[in-house]
Write a structure and sequence with these properties.
The chain is an all-alpha fold. The chain is built from five helices and no strands. The protein has one domain.
Length: 120
């Protein structure tokens, strides 16, 4: 009886580990796909614009989508600013069409499959 209980517990533990590792792998894949889709939208947007607009678009993308680096050597800390969404940041950078395209791409990737949907 005790041996059967131990085997059942170990089997459940292994199954839980497989389920959890599968969910973590799906999270990694979802994040990678999300960023790939954004990169694709940005590349298509840049390709559809005049060549002289590319530096402004690139600057807006770097400002809004790439994490800012914090300077640790400065003594004065600027007052915190309320966070804004990527879409609002792009609109403020005069790139409303790109903001809409990225928002459409992001909203298309909201559903996740099983077993990740158990945790999501």
């Amino acid at each position: 009886m005790r041996r059967t209980l131990k085997k059942a517990f170990m089997t459940l533990l292994v199954l839980w580990g497989v389920l959890l590792s599968s969910a973590l792998a799906q999270v990694a894949q979802f994040v990678a796909s999300h960023f790939d889709a954004r990169d694709y939208v940005i590349a298509n947007y840049i390709a559809s614009q005049p060549a002289q607009a590319e530096p402004a678009i690139t600057q807006a993308v770097q400002h809004c989508l790439e994490p800012s680096t914090l300077k640790t050597d400065s003594l004065s800390i600027p007052p915190p600013t309320p966070p804004i969404s990527v879409y609002e940041c792009l609109r403020q950078q005069n790139q409303p069409k790109l903001a809409i395209d990225i928002q459409t791409s992001d909203s298309a990737m909201q559903s996740v499959s099983w077993p990740l949907s158990l945790f999501w």
